[in-house]
Amino acid sequence: MNAEPGEKVAMPEITGYNPESTSPITIPAGGGTIKEYYTKKSSTNGGGTTPTNGGSTPTTNNSSTSPTANNGSSSSQSTSSTSTQPVSPQPSNPQASGSLVATKGEAVYSLKPIYLYESKNFNSHERLAKYTKKPRVNRPMFVVIRYARDANGRLRYFVRDVNHLSKTDGKTGYITANTSYVRPVYYRSLHKVITVINPNGVNSYRTKKLTGFVKHYRQGTILKVSRIVTHNLTTRYVLTNGKIVTANRKLVKSGKTSFPKNITVKKGIKLYSTLNSKSSKQHIKAGKKLQVKKVVYTVPSSVTQSGTKRYQVAGGYVTANSKYVKITK
């Protein structure tokens, strides 16, 4: 199955069993095992009732329009067919949301530290989890199940945590819908130039379903885009060569972003065998020149630790601290 992080796929069917959740599965941001639960169908009513989550089964009603967050921006309807206009990742309702309010069923991520709350009024004693500010490629992700407003009319998202490698995976609750703190994972607007920022790169395909592999692009590759298209609740960029790549903000970034190719050691540094290792395997002396393979961050799956920038080089990982290394051509 070809799919990008944050994309939703249907729950597999198992004869004689009902899934505990009727919502589609969201592909993990960093890979790993997806945990879903099923219950045996009741013999008295041909399948029984599906267990509910908090009293009601979350649904993804994609025919509804996105509400407007009370943060100074508003939502507007787009009637233009030109590719330079924002597009909504819902083919049945092409609404352009200037406020970047997410559609039900859409994936969002956090830009700043936020909490997951038990209630929509955000009482401190009802906090279920804290999510720290993370580097863009590792930002915590959620799927919007429904909307709510607090006692003062502020918009909230009722979400499911989809950080599958975190202990918070699967938790549900309320988070802010303020676009200074939370944004949709997928771009809605056309950007003529994008840069691959995912440490593992991205692939291009022949179709917007991401089938028919064409080419792999490494981190730092700059791509030219001709238009943006939708696929279910996600978006894709069509390159000028006609091939298609993801429009996932955790994987690509609008504009040109430079990544170092070489560094020179200013002071003695340690070489670590793994990204999160605390014990070094080798000492590298000042003056040594190293080729950078990737720019990465420690603890990528943690939602409570921000992560420290590292350079992947031959044999392992080294610090990216400018006090110790200098970027060179």
UniProtKB/TrEMBL annotation:
Pfam families: DUF5776. InterPro entries: DUF5776. Residues 186-252, 257-325 form the DUF5776 domain. Residues 50-87 have a biased composition (Low complexity). It comes from the Bacteria. Residues 1-99 are annotated as: Disordered. This is DUF5776 domain-containing protein.
